[in-house]
Amino acid sequence: MSEPAFYGLFVVGGLASFGGRVEPATALFLAVGVMGIQCVGMLSSMIYRWTLERKWSLGCLKLASGVPRLGYFLGMLAVPVLQLLVRASVALATVWALCGFSLRAQLGPLAVGVALVGVFWASLGCALTALIRSYRVRDFVVSLALTPLMFSAPTLYSLDQAPAFLQTLSCANPLTWQLGYLRACAAGEERPELLAVAASMTLAMAVVGYLSTGRMRTVSNEG
Q1: Where are the transmembrane segments (predicted)?
Q2: Cα–Cα dist 17/214, whole Å
């Protein structure tokens, strides 16, 4: 849990400081960006969990013993999503303390939004683990994609004045839309278009992740 606290303390504390004080509006913008980074981290977390399931044939054993595929899939998501909510809470609490407890955010909608976005990235991790047999190829794909994913989206800065090519990449990045939705949740704004985009992406990826559990019956070797 130290990573979100360090992000909140040093990254948000440094970037949101003006004239010796932390600006709450900027701090909230950055805090949501930190939460987005934590959500993307679900990708690696789920790949690790599912790799163990494949390596030791645990997924195959559970499904063969009668565990429903939907129950297996939801069970694999539950603990990581709860851990994500705790990490997001740590980041927000750290930033809240930095702002002298003057930060204002809609906690309920924000928690729901973080869980929704986390399910997207966790489901993507499930799908990648089931579809890519080689852990070397999978690790290469993930390591190659993570940095552009996190920094072509407005995680810790606004892209309003960015070059055209970066704005184009940002529009194609799912994290951009998810951060917009999370920031609307934090501010208490009603943005049905952002909710629709975020929910649609999560639903589509969750279906892909669920379908990928079928391969856990037969795929058990890592190479």
Answers
A1: 29-51, 72-98, 110-132, 139-159, 194-211
A2: 50
Alpha carbons 12 and 114: distance in angstroms, whole number: 18
pLDDT confidence of residue 43: 93
**Residue 180 neighbours by CB distance under 10 Å:** 18
CB-based contact 8:91 (threshold 8 Å): yes
E strand or H helix at 21: strand 21-22
Mean pLDDT of 2-20: 91
Rounded CA-CA distance 201/149 in Å is 15
Angle among Cα 17, 146, 207 to the nearest 5 degrees reads 115
Written as one letter, the residue type at 43 is L
CB 213 within 8 A of CB 200: no
- Please give the radius of gyration of the chain, using alpha carbons only, rounded to the nearest integer: 18
